[in-house]
Amino acid sequence: MGPAPQKQTSRRARRLRGRMTMAVGGSVVALALVAAGCSSSSSSSTGSTSAGTKVKGGTAVYALPPSTTPNYIFPMTSSAYISVYNLNTFSQQLYRPLYWFGNGSKPLLNPALSLAGEPTWSGNTATITLKHYMWSNGTPVTSTDVMFWLNMLKAVGPSDWGAYSGFPDSFVTSYKAVSPSQVQITTNKAYSHSWFLYNNLSQITPMPPAWDKTASGPASCATKVSDCAGVYKYLDSQAKQLTTYASSPLWSIVDGPWKLSAFNADGHVTFVPNPKYSGPVKPSLAQFQEVPFTTDAAEYNVLRSPAAGGQKISVGYLPSQDAIAKPAGSSPLTAGQNPLQGYTLDPLYIWGINYFVMNFQSSTGNGPIINQLYFRQALAYLLNQEAVIKGPLRGYGTLTPGPVGLTPDTPFISPQLKTTNPFPYSPDKAKSLLTSHGWKVTPNGVTTCTNPSLCGPGIKQGQGLQFNLPYATGTQWVTQEMQQLQSNASLVGIKINLHPKPFNQVTALAAGNCKVAKIPCNWDLANWGGGWSFAPDYSPTGETLFMCGAIANSGGYCSKTNDNYINTTLTSNDLQAMYTWQNYLSAQLPVMWQPNGVYSLTEITNNLKGVVPQSPTLNITPEYWYFVK
Amino acid sequence: MTMNLPADPPPGPESSAMGLATVTSEPLGEASAIAPGMLPAGKPRSAFRRSLDVFLDNKLAVTGVAIFVAMVLFCFLGPVFYHTDQVHVNFAIENMPPSAAHPLGTDGNGYDVLGRLMAAGQISLEVGLAAAALATIVGVLWGAVAGYFGGVLDSAMMRLVDAMLSIPTLFLALVVVAIVTPTTPILILVIALTSWLTTSRLVRGEALSLRVREYVQAMKVMGGGGTRAVLRHIAPNAVGTIMVNATFQVADAIALVVALSYLGLGVPPPKQDWGGMLSDGVQYVYDGYWWLIFPAGLCIILVITAAIFVGEGLRDAVEVRLQQR
Amino acid sequence: MAPVTPAPQAGTGKGPALVAFFVRRLLQSIVVLLLVTLITFALLRMIPGNVAVAVMGPGAYRNPQAIKLFNATYGFDLPWYRQYFLWLSNLARGNLGYSWTLNQSVASLLANRLPKTIALVGISTILALVLAIPIGVIQAVRRNKLTDHAFNAFSTIFYATPAFLIGIVAILLFAIKFPIFPPEGPQGEGLGSIITNFEAMILPIVTLALVTIALFSRYMRSSVLDNLTEDYVRTARAKGASERRVLIRHVMRNSLIPIATLLGLSLPAILAGALITESVFNYPGMGYLFYQSALKQDYPTLLGFTVVVALATVVGSLLADIAYAVLDPRVRYVSS
User: Fold this and answer.
1) Which of A76-80, A590-594, B173-177 has the highest mean pLDDT?
2) Which of A155, A530, A573, B226 has its CA 20 to 30 A from that of B278?
3) Could you tell me the strand order of the sheet in which A608-609 lies?
4) pLDDT value at position A603?
5) Residue C297 contacts by C-beta under 8 Å, 6 or more apart in sequence?
6) Average pLDDT in the B195-219 region?
7) Chains that touch A (3 or more CB pairs under 8 A)
8) Is the pLDDT of residue B34 over 50?
9) Alpha-carbon distance A349 to C49, whole Å?
């Protein structure tokens, strides 16, 4: 029942995907991840408690997020099409990436589902040994297939790989296939091994030799980088023929558990098991279907209706405004009462942080104000995260205290931030911050600066606190959070003008560092609603987002102290470096932290098992799903 | 879906294109006509009086006027007697059912629904009336100029109208709203932008038919100027039709604002119009929060229906002046 | 206003006048079409923001080469009038453009989605007509009596109710509370699913029809009223024809002619209504696609769609005019 067809467009489609650009030496990441790995849940999720006998076969229907339809099948996906509904839930079911991330409920490497073992290192050289996987046309998955990808990445990566982060050019001196099952990659200096695996090798998807061709015939991209541009062009043009996805001889060569039996450009996709799949768990289902929805309200209608001649959804989602509020004090990770009969509710949180950006480089005249820490802190005291979680989010949300998220629980989060909210709601504190810095507070009016020497450099006498805040429409709780901020800020005379806009417009305006990207700087605050997700760089060190001059540092926050702290986290083996950095940056407010709302209130029909625990990497593994009687 | 309801079927197909003139059968001069209901021995009643009688006889039209006036009073005078805070959010009291403190409950942001209905009604009514007025003014001017002067000017002006009529209203609205953030004045402009077209067509048809009417031609022969023709003959007849059309414009303007709000293109927070209230409210249809849905819906339906009834009453009244059967 | 019997202009045979009229109308239609494309194009270019970044996502900032390539490929580095001519010349060659956000050609998108919308709009319009015409006639015949008022009130209320509210209430009542129909439109590919899964079409069709009935019945009523007072009706009655015969044989036929014009003109509005109905009932047709494209700044799709709708409207009204000119003997040709 979404009011606007685009409201509640799930944040699946709108998270900005994080990339790390570089790290030096062994890092705290390695230790943390090992520690986390030791305490993670079981590596495979073969369905926990099953009350009922397993039944082979059946069709599971998976509801796609609102207004999303898969439209790109070629794994080398450019930034226009790279998304969860094209990669995670679509092409990665057919063509498995070399390394799979998502182990139970932890965003960790899943060795069982990976096509190769963890790389072994000798000096700066990593050796990847492939397992014995087969393509569905009978040929084995070999090191040539990995070289195929690496060569193409080298040739067209910067322009056509949406997750491009500099790999391989920026840190790899050489890579070669040393045997049909082994690839060796040599880096230009010593890097953290887990960082290299998690952020760079994670980008590799082996491609079958049959794809190594152009329109005129076979090519040799797997051996010659110079051939790759032409091959990419051909494969990209094939990927534009959506009507041929199910029948094409190219796309039907798969190494994943599934292959396409039907594909409709309007979003109806049907997978059937790939009998030649070499992985550890073969699909139980006879069919796995994805179905599109215009709005989450339309999807909820189908969830609620008995299957009267229509389809029944097996795995869907509950719009958060229809959720039943959880009792106070219960963990956001646990499911509360479910308004639906016959379904099990399982909240899924994405591994990331949520915030909205403030433009330190604003050319509207508000730049100097935003640069003042006391002002940002005043605003933070007015943004009542807890009220948003309790109210619009119905308890299904976590606080974002700083640059590291609280969910899922990892060793990365500083103990201090884990337990205390650095900015609990306090209009009084906000008011005193303003008055002690030379502002005359006019509640429900516009607060003005009466003492420029106290207000700060660049702030004029009589300048008012008035800001424009464009925010992305489509997510109800974000809309309500913005209205609350506007309302609370008016109590101390900070006038915020809200501008609801489509998601694309907000990101186009504010997602890049305006000075670095050379785009207009005439915005103050902007909220695309989704913050940042750590995928596939699962280590939340801050160089992409918070270092001086980083392109994803939208607001332009720059601090030498912060840069030093970040560099320490990349080189130190002590988790304390992470904690020190977080504690510092959290109070600095380089961006305005906002609640991390639940990504999806997943509803799973009661007779379908194997779906939980869901992975915060948003990868799904329908080959584990099975019906019970 | 909104569609401008012209008062009548268009006067012949595309008369703008065919150059077709449909000639009405108005008599020359009205004052001497004999109207039904005239007292046998008394003076003939004026045309205006007759129209008023017809209008007042039409029960639906009278009801419409009453509803409309009641709504205006409710929305603009109501807040004087019933104070609520429509600016500050309070999640602690969100979505509460009707109670003594809040006769119609509260919405998702904690706003009192009854108070919000009044505030939202102000915006809806303002937009509806202002957009209709603006559209009518522009449409009348455009159509009159095109119809009276004819020729290439007429052709060019009406081609532009045809072109804009072929573009779906929502498209125009979507694009304009994507360019500028919708505030109340912008919304008025956007809706007026799409509504003036049918008015101009209507007026142009009238002006065209009048141009070729015998008595206007006769006047020209006798040396009477165009202005005189326009004022003495076009104006009285056209005014009736224009008024009727304007009333329907009000109905359509309000409906269009509701559609735009549903698509997320209404006024920005903390303000809201009835359409925004309704489209937010229907999210909770499964949760049983009826107070978020029916009051706003009822207001919308009532006002649009009232406007249409009034428009139809006006049309019947105007027709009486025109008919001499 | 009612048309009056004219004196046919001496010396003007019907044949050549008709042809001349047709040619003139055709030329005018082409001008209108061009104007539509120009207006649409100009409007779209006014939307602020970098289109390359809107399409490629904020990651594009890391890739200035990609932005340059995008602008060069789609002509965004040209001045707007040259972009317009580029698009027009593509259009002349039958290339409607390529949708960036959906990775399909606009033509294939239309081929995929348009039939669904046409089915929805077509069937509901027919349903609306089938109901509205008799209602309009009854209303005219029983003018100002209770029946007239009742129908009037009923159809007006449905016209005043927002389409999405009707749809949502319909789903709540007939798909959830009393599970008679499915809560969403037919989901299969192509038009075949509409036939096999027709019960899923019923709620969307009825929703869309309910709003249109009001308009059509009102027109029909006006039109019938106008005709009922015509001379030829009096003549027929004087000749002894029964009321029913008069109604059906004479009045209906002539009353239907303005309806044809109305149909042609109301196409854009009905499509706008379809947009909302499609999104409520999860029926991904052209209307809903158009709305999504507007939000994502997918210009080629928007342009392509607008051209198609404008073409349909212009052709529709052209045909209606011709039909009118051919059928109605009372029409007078005046050189404009």
Assistant:
1) A590-594
2) A530
3) A54-55, A626-628, A608-609
4) 96
5) A502, A504, A505, B178, C47, C49, C51, C54, C55
6) 74
7) B, C
8) no
9) 31
State whether B262 and C164 contact (CB < 8 Å). yes
Residue B94 to residue A391, Cβ atoms within 8 A: yes
- SS3 of chain A: helix, strand, coil, percent, to 5: 30, 20, 50
Cβ A294–C49 below 8 Å, yes or no?
Answer: no
Within an 8 Å CB–CB cutoff, is residue B324 touching chain C? Answer: no
**Among candidates A79, A310, A509 on the partner chain, residue whose Cβ is nearest the Cβ of C60:** A79
Tally the residues of chain C: 336
CB neighbour burial string for C101-113, b if at least 16 within 10 angstroms, e if fewer: bbbbbbbbbbebb
> Which one is predicted more confidently, B223 or B315?
B315
Contact status of C11 with chain A (Cβ, < 8 Å)? no
A422 in Cβ contact with A401 (< 8 Å): yes
| Rg (chain C; Cα; Å) | 24
C254-258's contacts with Cβ under 8 Å and 24+ in sequence apart are C254/C223, C254/C227, C254/C230, C254/C328, C255/C136, C255/C137, C255/C220, C255/C223, C255/C224, C255/C226, C255/C227, C256/C133, C256/C223, C257/B13, C257/C223, C257/C323, C257/C324, C257/C327, C257/C328, C258/B9, C258/B10, C258/B13, C258/C219, C258/C223
**Could you tell me if B187 and B170 are in contact, meaning their C-beta atoms sit under 8 angstroms apart?**
no
Query: Which pLDDT does position B208 carry in this prediction?
Result: 72
CB contact residues (below 8 A), chain A span 332-351, against chain B: 339
Chain position carrying tokens 């609640």: A595
pLDDT, one tens digit per residue, over B119-143 is 999 999 999 999 999 999 999 888 8
Chain A residue with minimal CA distance to B87?
A: A487
Q: List for chain C the helix, strand, coil content (%; round to 5).
A: 75, 0, 25
Interior/surface letters A178-217, b for 16+ CB within 10 angstroms, e for the rest: eeebbbbbebeeebbbbbbbbbbbbbbbbbbbebbbbeee
Residue C62 has pLDDT above 70, yes or no: no
Nearest CA in chain C to B211: C336
pLDDT above 90 coverage of chain A, percent: 64
Q: DSSP label at A624?
A: G
Amino acid at C237: R
The structure tokens listed for B233 are 């003959």
pLDDT digits 0-9 by tens, A297-337: 899 999 988 665 567 899 999 998 899 999 888 888 899 99
Token pair of C41, please?
Answer: 């194009």
A498 touches chain B (CB under 8 A): yes
The CB density around residue C180, as the number of other CB atoms within 10 Å, is: 13
Query: What ipTM was reported for this prediction?
Result: 0.82
Q: Nearest-CA neighbor of C230 among C65, C28, C5?
A: C5
Report how far residue A618's alpha carbon sits from residue A348's, in angstroms, rounded to the nearest whole number.
9
**Among A457-471, B20-34, C147-161, C257-271, which range has the highest average pLDDT?**
A457-471
Which has more confidence, B264 or A286?
A286
pLDDT grade for A457, boundaries at 50, 70 and 90: very high
Question: Please, which residues 148-207 of chain C have a Cβ atom closer than 8 Å to chain B?
Answer: 149, 152-153, 156-157, 159-165, 168, 172, 176
Distance CA(A597)–CA(A605), nearest Å, equals 23
Q: Are C333 and B19 inside 8 Å of each other by CB?
A: yes
State which residue of chain C sits closest to B254, comparing Cα positions. C160
Q: Is the model's pTM score more than 0.90?
A: no
Token digits for C258? 């303005």
Q: How confident is the model at residue A561 (pLDDT cuts 50, 70, 90)?
A: very high
Give the residue among C216, C309, C234 at the shortest CA–CA distance from C271: C309
The 10 Å CB-count burial string (b at 16+, else e) for B28-62 is: eebeeeebeeeeeeeeeeebeebbeebbeebebbe
Q: Is B100 helix (H, G, I), strand (E, B) or coil?
A: coil
Tokens 């007697």 correspond to: B81
Among residues B162, B312, A437, the alpha carbon closest in space to that of C36 is found at B162
pLDDT at residue A43, rounded to an integer? 37
